[in-house]
Design a protein that fits this description.
By secondary structure, this protein is α+β, with helices and mostly antiparallel strands. Helices cover about 60% and strands about 15% of the residues. It has one domain: Orthogonal Bundle (Arc Repressor Mutant, subunit A), CATH 1.10.10.10. Strands 1-3-2 form a three-stranded antiparallel sheet. Helix 1 runs antiparallel to helix 4 (about 40-50). The longest helix is centred in the C-terminal third of the chain and has 23 residues, at about 85-110. It is globular, with a radius of gyration of 14 Å. This is DNA-binding transcriptional ArsR family regulator. Keywords: DNA-binding, Transcription, Transcription regulation. One of its GO terms (molecular function) is DNA-binding transcription factor activity.
């Protein structure tokens, strides 16, 4: 539980969780949303993984990150993000990314 509280104590990590609320993102896509170095973003992702809040999957040369949905802390964080004015726009952006991903997948499947 200590790792979860440590992970959630950072504004950057809470924002990363908001971005991952609806969509899987690569480390590069996450880093592109912050004005910090890619190694710093990787460190934040590592903290989130060690806390069990996100999981990663290597596909080709990219590592994709997603929320661990079954984690109680993520459920509570999702609730808090609904009432947090800073997180609302980030969650909307995440939902938009999910829709873009679906549209691209449907286009790829079309004959």
């Amino acid at each position: 539980m200590q790792r979860v509280f440590e992970a959630l104590s950072s504004t950057v990590r809470r924002k990363i969780l908001a971005y991952l609320s609806h969509a899987e993102l690569t480390a590069g896509e996450i880093a592109g949303r912050f004005d910090i170095s890619k190694p710093a973003v990787s460190q934040h992702l590592s903290v989130l993984q060690n806390a069990g809040l996100v999981e990663s999957e290597k596909r080709g040369q990219f590592v994709h990150y997603r929320l661990v949905e079954a984690n109680l802390a993520n459920a509570l964080n999702g609730y808090l993000q609904e009432v947090c004015p800073v997180s609302r726009p980030l969650k909307r952006e995440s939902a938009g990314l999910k829709n873009q991903s679906r549209t691209a997948a449907q286009t790829d499947e079309a004959p």
